[in-house]
Amino acid sequence: MDFKIGDKVAYASETGGGVVTKILENELVEIISDDGFFITVPGEKLILENPAIHDSLRNAAYPALGSPDKVEEPSPRFAKSKPKRDSEAYVINLHAEDLINDFTGLTNSDIIVKQLNYFRDKFEKAMELKKRKITVIHGVGKGVLKQEVRYLLDGYEGVTYYDAPFSKYGYGATEVIIE
Predict the structure, then answer these.
(1) How far apart are CA 72 and CA 54, in angstroms?
(2) Pick the residue with more confidence: 175 or 64?
C-alpha cells in the first residue's frame, strides 16, 4: 500500500472511489468517497487511479497539498456555441435490485453508496448529452435515498427538482429540470 493523502483512488472490485484523506493503522485508509462520504477502507481494496493524471487531480481536489496549476481559459476564437438542450426525458432507475447482482455482505450504507455512485455517473452523462428533463426513480422506502439524491442535486447550478407525477411514478421519483 503506497497511498498518500490526496491520492485519487478507485475501488478494486466495484464502481466508484474517492480521495485519500488519512492513512490509518493496520493498512486502513480513510477516503472521502465520490459522493462525499468519509469512509474507512482496507488499502488492499483500493487501487491508485491513472498516475499520469494523478497530480493534476490531487492539486485540483486538495490545493493545499500541492501547488495548483494555473488553468487558462480557452481562446475565445475557438469557443463553441452552446448546443441546445434535448427535451427528451431521461430516466435514471436507482432500484437496488436493478443495479446490484449480489447483495452478499453489503450493508444498507454500502447499497446506498452504490446507488449514489450510479446516480452521479448517469446524471453527469445526462448533462453531457444536454438533457433538459431527468426522472430519477429512487423508490419510497424510508426516504434516505431520495434525500441523498436531492442533496447531491443541490450542488449543481441551474438545476431544479420536484416530486415526479404521482399518477406515473407514485411517491418514488423525482423530476429534475436543467436550465
Answers:
(1) 19
(2) 175
